[in-house]
Design a protein that fits this description.
There is one protein chain. The chain is an all-alpha fold. The chain has a domain at 79-193. Helix content is 72%, strand content 2%. It has a two-stranded antiparallel sheet. It is rod-shaped, with a radius of gyration of 39 Å. The chain starts with a strand and ends in a 6-residue tail after the last helix. The relative contact order is 0.08.
């Protein structure tokens, strides 16, 4: 007795056709040729799988390299787009909070100004400590100087200095704020080119 190579059922040694699956049984020479052919097919498939694996590995490495380059250009270079955008978001947040606090201080009586001015001073100190992209250093400097002059104008007002002295300090603050805005516009205009 032997086993059918197709259905694995037992059949007679002399059988030419399997009585279970009805397939023609290979003769000993054909069987050996089928085994050799099967082994060669398996070898070819293994080579093809290996080649596919190498191609996939190459694609992954190329994608990782491009991802690394993108991250480097956008976040690790001094004025990469991502880093500048993050820094601008920080400056915009502080700028908005500053003007909200000025609005409150401007509508507060002279005798009650110490609390709102203390809030302005806290925002000013936060701005001084702010770490930003190097190409926005000039903008940050203009913003902090403008804040400094604004605080000076409120302090002069609280000290009951002459109106001309208070207005002079506020004019300085306004000029510096205008320079800050111009600098932000300049950096935004050349941001994709990593301007300095």
């Amino acid at each position: 007795m032997k086993t059918c190579p197709f259905c694995a059922e037992e059949i007679q040694d002399a059988a030419i056709v399997c009585k279970h699956c009805g397939r023609d049984l290979p003769q000993p020479q054909e069987l050996q040729a089928n085994v050799v052919s099967w082994a060669e097919d398996k070898k070819e498939k293994k080579k093809a799988n290996k080649a596919g694996l190498y191609v996939l590995l190459a694609i992954v490495l190329i994608a990782a390299a491009f991802g690394g380059i993108y991250y480097y250009v956008n976040y690790l270079t001094p004025c990469g787009v991502g880093r500048v955008q993050d820094s601008m978001a920080k400056l915009t947040d502080i700028h908005n909070r500053w003007f909200d606090a000025i609005e409150i201080a401007s509508s507060t009586s002279r005798i009650s100004l110490s609390g709102p001015v203390a809030d302005l001073q806290a925002i000013y100190r936060e701005t001084e400590k702010l770490e930003i992209a190097p190409c926005l250093t000039q903008a940050k400097m203009y913003l902090t100087q403008s804040m400094d002059w604004t605080l000076e104008s409120f302090q002069r007002f609280m000290a009951q200095d002459e109106d001309s002295s208070v207005n002079s300090a506020m004019e300085q603050a306004t000029k510096l704020l205008s320079k800050y805005t111009d600098e932000i516009i300049r950096v935004k205009a050349c941001m994709p080119n990593n301007c300095q």
